[in-house]
């Protein structure tokens, strides 16, 4: 992994434009819905402000003719605590490889979060703008705007996000 932007040789046209300095921010990429194929692009823009959190590591098994094949699945959340967040999921034979892979996938899946106010428009935006409901499989999540200082009212794993 190259932590330095200097050692990175871009493979995509977007990567070359970022390295040349023709694209100034991640918002320009989101504005035109350009797919990010290289995680170094996200590192270039967010850099040191990017923090990661391993949410969960769980063993998964596949039944084969010779028995079970065990792998480890890692869930990693990456964000800059300023309106960008990404989730990555990867399964590998070793825990370290699955964490590394899911970290790269989380950087590729990073999305902007729209923020708003609860009540009056005083100070910086601190919550989500409207009530939001999302569903994936059997899980449904409902996000509701809250006043400043309310914190996150959710389970321990959800609070990490």
From TrEMBL:
Gene Ontology cellular component terms for the protein in this record = cytosolic small ribosomal subunit
Domain S5 DRBM as annotated: residue spans: 50-113
* Key words of the record: Ribonucleoprotein, Ribosomal protein
Its domain of life reads Eukaryota
Q: Name one GO molecular function term.
A: structural constituent of ribosome
Keyword Ribonucleoprotein included in the entry's annotation: yes
Task: List, alphabetically, the InterPro entries matched.
Answer: Ribosomal_Su5_D2-typ_SF, Ribosomal_uS5, Ribosomal_uS5_C, Ribosomal_uS5_euk/arc, Ribosomal_uS5_N, Ribosomal_uS5_N_CS, Ribsml_uS5_D2-typ_fold_subgr
Gene Ontology BP annotations:
translation
One Pfam family of this chain: Ribosomal_S5
Concerning its family, UniProt says:
Belongs to the universal ribosomal protein uS5 family.
Recorded protein name is Small ribosomal subunit protein uS5
Task: Name the source organism.
Answer: Strombidinopsis acuminata
